[in-house]
Amino acid sequence: MNKQTFNIIGWILLLVMGVSWIVFGYSSWYLLLLPLSYISFSISDGSIKKLGKLSISQATLILFALAVSVGIVFGLIQLANYVINEKLHLTGVIKTVSQIIAIIISLYLLSLRLAALFIRYTVIQMLIKRKYCYTILCQNRAHICNKG
Asked: pLDDT means per 10 residues in the chain (148 residues)?
């Protein structure tokens, strides 16, 4: 399959998830469609190939961070659902919109954290590949020195 096909698959998954979410309301299985669409977009833009260049320890750390982040996001979504249903007693469209906003904010925070983690390891790999060393000084400032 070419890259355009994976891009179209990702948009179809997001569209199906969004429409069914609005029509039928929130369900926890939508959290499975979002990573599938993200993987599809990653394949289409070629960024999934970078995962093959990670070491075992880096991949383990990224998977651990993903598991912790998903747990935190799930907890935030459950907390938002409790506040919306039990404390605020929202109903109808306002409830649906509130749930959508809470989930989007939670997932956005997750994606920012995981992207920062992945970018950090990609940059470190690139620096190691170019024979640079990455040293942290005593004053918590980053310093890059040429090993060359």
From this structure: 82 86 76 78 76 73 77 86 91 88 84 73 64 43 44
